[in-house]
Design a protein that fits this description.
Layout: H1 19-30, H2 33-43, E1 49-57, E2 61-68, E3 73-79, H3 84-87, H4 95-112, E4 120-124, E5 135-139, E6 144-145, H5 146-152, H6 163-181, E7 184-185, E8 190-193, E9 200-203, H7 216-233, H8 240-256, E10 264-268, E11 276-278, E12 284-287, E13 293-296, H9 298-301, H10 322-345, H11 351-355, H12 360-371, H13 376-396
Antiparallel strand pairs: 1-2, 2-3, 3-5, 4-5, 6-11, 7-10, 8-9, 10-13, 11-12
Helix pairs in contact: 6-10, 7-8, 8-12, 8-13, 12-13
């Protein structure tokens, strides 16, 4: 039987001398695989199991497929050791806390929504356990990420199967976003789960280590301060534009956004076609990677999926060349169709979030997200856009909130 895991390519995903390749190779040799199969067998009525040879490896995790003699299939996801470059980042990398929040998010979504989240069977977050790594055991989902399947089928970029298949996939994506938005909390931050009381609460954001927050302005203030500290601590980012962009963002937030005090909907900051699993017909069979889940301001909830070919242009900035102009014209109907989908599906309190997806506040958040890559042309584009929005606000004396399709162009 051909399974999705039979296409996992392991370390071949990286060049041989790449640090990621070397780390995965060493890690594979050091893990106590006998302990993995023994623990999993104990968690499944002592039924023997075997690990499949193929494995998948990413930036943070290595995953192997495990099959029991009764036909049940699980996946074991092991946390890879940090690279030296990881320890230099300004991000708060409390690995255990990050994994606990991800586990809490998976449990919450499994209990409270119909989103196709794998069941968690066991986890051990002690890096010095007998396996030799932190790990989580979940149901195996026989699917491939939509983006990888697109590449494997050699489809044109962002063409997810036939027109009918692509339309169905995007409707499923929109449904996930809407269902997340219906989950609401009184604070901004990451999910926590109390195993004794089984209660879910909001704690500090795992990406920043800050919070929780009771208002969107307080959240954006801390995000900007953290961004400035990141720029100050890294020589390669220590330039005027890297410093100016967050400061401009904070000013523009006060000009164009309202200070929301909740309730705050769930959003997955890493939601995209790279972390949904699909079958061979591009129909969603599961969702993976939940570290980016948080209760968030509405401008974050109302963002487009990543790696989708739906990237609204920066407000006020004309295309810098014919290629970009053609791409924007190609993406415009995709963007409009997806927004229409969301507006059709969102019929509760979350409806207003998606009604304003093309508004200036959402563009500001998109800009700050894009700026995190620190690419020169991206910085230049969004700096020009932020200055344009500031000029427009000053000239018009605008202190109102743009709504609907009020995207500057």
């Amino acid at each position: 039987m051909d399974t999705a895991s039979s296409h996992w390519i392991g370390v071949l995903a990286y060049q041989e001398h790449d640090a990621l390749h070397q780390r995965a190779t060493t890690f594979l040799q050091q893990v106590g695989w006998e302990a993995v199969t023994r623990i999993c067998s104990q968690k499944h009525q002592n039924i023997p199991c075997r690990l499949q040879n193929n494995f998948a490896v990413g930036r943070f995790n290595l995953v192997r497929h495990l099959i029991f003699e009764d036909g049940i299939e699980w996946a074991v996801r092991l946390r890879l050791p940090e690279l030296p470059s990881d320890s230099d980042t300004a991000k708060v990398q409390d690995v255990e806390l990050m994994m606990r929040c991800e586990i809490a998010s998976m449990k919450y979504l499994k209990q409270k929504t119909s989103i196709l989240v794998p069941e968690i069977h066991h986890y051990d977050l002690n890096p010095n356990n007998e396996v030799g790594a932190r790990f989580v055991v979940v149901d195996y989902i026989n699917g491939t990420t939509a983006y990888r399947l697109l590449m494997r089928k050699q489809r044109p970029l962002f063409t997810f199967g036939t027109e009918e298949q692509s339309a169905k996939l995007k409707q499923q994506m929109a449904q996930i976003q809407v269902e997340l938005a219906r989950c609401q909390f009184g604070q901004i931050g990451s999910l926590r789960h109390d195993e004794d009381s089984s209660e879910f609460t909001i704690g500090p954001d795992v990406e920043t280590g800050l919070g929780p927050w009771k208002s969107s302005f307080a959240y954006y203030h801390d995000v900007v301060e953290r961004s400035l500290k990141s720029c100050a601590s890294k020589k390669e980012l220590n330039n005027r534009q890297s410093f100016a962009a967050p400061i401009l963002f904070k000013d523009l937030v006060h000009r164009y956004c309202s200070d929301d005090t909740g309730p705050f909907s769930l959003a997955n900051r890493d939601f995209g076609f790279h972390n949904i699993l699909v079958d061979d017909n591009f129909s969603i069979v599961g969702v993976i990677d939940f570290a980016g889940i948080m209760a968030a301001p509405k401008e974050i909830v109302g963002q487009f999926p990543a790696m989708s070919g739906m990237n609204p242009p920066a407000p006020g900035i004309p295309p810098r060349n014919d290629f970009v102009k053609a791409r924007e014209e190609e993406e415009r109907p995709l963007i409009e169709a997806y927004v229409a989908l969301l507006r059709t599906l969102a019929v509760g309190p979350e409806a207003q979030i998606f009604a304003n997806m093309m508004a200036i506040p959402n563009s500001l958040v998109q800009g700050m997200t894009d700026l995190a890559c620190h690419q020169d042309f991206v910085i230049e584009q969004w700096m020009d856009s932020f200055v344009y929005l500031l000029r427009e606000s000053v000239l018009k004396g605008s202190q109102t909130i743009p709504t609907g399709n009020e995207l500057a162009s």
